[in-house]
Structures are given as C-alpha cells and as structure tokens.
Amino acid sequence: MASSRLSRRPIRIALIALLTIAVLALIGAIAVIVPILTHQSAGGSGQTLPADTVSETRAEGADGRTRELRAESASGEPADLGSLRPGEEIVVRGEGFDASIGIYVAICAIPETAEQKPGPCLGGIPEGAESGDAAGEEALSSVWITDDWAWRAFATHGYDDAAAGSFTARIRVPDPAIEGLDCRSSACAIATRADHTAGADRVQDLLLPVRFAER
C-alpha cells in the first residue's frame, strides 16, 4: 500500500510541473497578445511628404512628439537618395520616436494617403527575425527595432536611447523590384512604420522619398 502511494508521487509531481508550465505559457501568451489587440492608435505623424528627395525630414505627430529621420552615406555624409544603387549602404537615424512602439525601417511604396500604411516594402522580413538570429551589426535590407521584452530577441535592433526615441539602422539597398512593387516606376521612400504590435498606428510613419539610378 505504502509502495503504491510512493510510486504515484513522481507522477503527481510531474503533472503539477506540467500544469505549472502550461499556466506560465498561457500567462506569457496573454501578455503578448493582449497589448496587440488593445493598442489604440495615437493618430498620424503629421509629416508633409517632401516634394523631392531629401536626406532628412521632421514632423510633429498627433501625440505631441517631434520625430526626425535622416539618411547618411556609409561615410557620414547626407545620403543622395535620388540615385540609389542596389548593394550600397545607407545609415538611417531617427530621434523623437515613441520607444514603446516598435518600428520597421525599409524602402517601401509611398501610400496614397497619410492614413494608409507604407507598403509593400522591398527586403521582406528582416533576415533572422523569424528564428531569433537577427544580426543588428550588419547592414540589412530591412530592419526591425523594438524594446518590447516579448519581441526583442527576434528584432534586429533596440532603440539607442528609449527616452530620446533615437535609433540607428544600417540599410543595404535591395533590388528595386519585387512581386507587386517596382520602385523604378512607383513612388517609394525609406520609411518607418509601426511594427505588427501596433500595425494600424500611423504616428511613427516618416518617409524620405527615393529614386533608383538608371542601370
């Protein structure tokens, strides 16, 4: 009788352990999903789209934050965004962004209105983001920046300074065309936009129009 109770004890301990793991996993999933479902848009970025290619822009968003976005060459000079060539490196810097909202940085189609999300985008999902092996030190065709604990391991970068809302991203210019988008014939820009955790929020959208050099 005593031996029977003893033999059941490891099973009971294992079941309790499994139940504890399941509860913790459920709590973690709720902590990740609920903020996505309940996020409220802060409004628009307030940017007036530049009429031509410029290396920097700034705008005061509906949330009262003044955001700045600028593009530099690898040597630190203002980037010439009027004649991009695949393979060249652009250093994109931002300030004043809301670090509680992750962003994607990529070359994207300019939307018809400010209420629409920039896209589609060249470069696709940042390399390594799906597996958690993203390398923020390398120049990538698209970048994901977040300080969110649930996603940081999958993003390519965190914010440089959360209080200042600053970031640095090295973009390797991709080929100008993908299925559904050709930036040689469509208006495109280096764009920042809220990541999937706040996909309908336009307050982080800033655009630096680009053109690709003739082949």
Describe the structure.
The chain is of the alpha+beta class and 215 residues long. The protein has one domain (56-210): Immunoglobulin-like (Sandwich), CATH 2.60.40.230. The protein is 17% helix and 24% strand. It contains 1 helix and 10 strands, in the order αββββββββββ. It has one helix at 2-38; strands at 56-60, 66-73, 89-95, 103-109, 143-145, 167-172, 177-178, 181-182, 188-194, 206-210. The protein has a 4-stranded antiparallel sheet with strand order 1-2-3-6, with no helix packed on it. A 4-stranded antiparallel sheet has the order 5-4-9-10, with no helix packed on it. The chain has a two-stranded antiparallel sheet with strand order 7-8. It starts with a helix and ends in a 5-residue tail after the last strand. The model is unreliable at 28-32 (pLDDT under 50).
Q: How would the blueprint of this fold be written?
A:
Blueprint (H helix, E strand, L loop, with lengths): L1 H37 L17 E5 L5 E8 L15 E7 L7 E7 L33 E3 L21 E6 L4 E2 L2 E2 L5 E7 L11 E5 L5
Antiparallel strand pairs: 1-2, 2-3, 3-6, 4-5, 4-9, 7-8, 9-10
**What is the beta-strand fraction?**
15-25%
Which class in CATH terms?
Mainly Beta
Cα shape: elongated
User: What does the largest sheet look like?
Assistant: 4 strands, antiparallel
CATH superfamily: Neocarzinostatin-like
Radius of gyration: 22 Å
- Give the terminus-to-terminus CA distance: 85 Å
Q: Helix and strand succession? A: HEEEEEEEEEE
Mean pLDDT: 86
Any idea of the CATH topology?
Answer: Immunoglobulin-like
Strand arrangement within the widest β-sheet reads 1-2-3-6
Q: How many strands?
A: 10
Tally of structural domains: 1
The share of residues in helices is: 10-25%
Oligomer: single chain
Q: From the 3D coordinates, which CATH architecture would you assign?
A: Sandwich
Give the number of helices.
Answer: 1
Low-pLDDT runs of 5+ residues are 28-32
Structural class of the secondary elements? alpha+beta
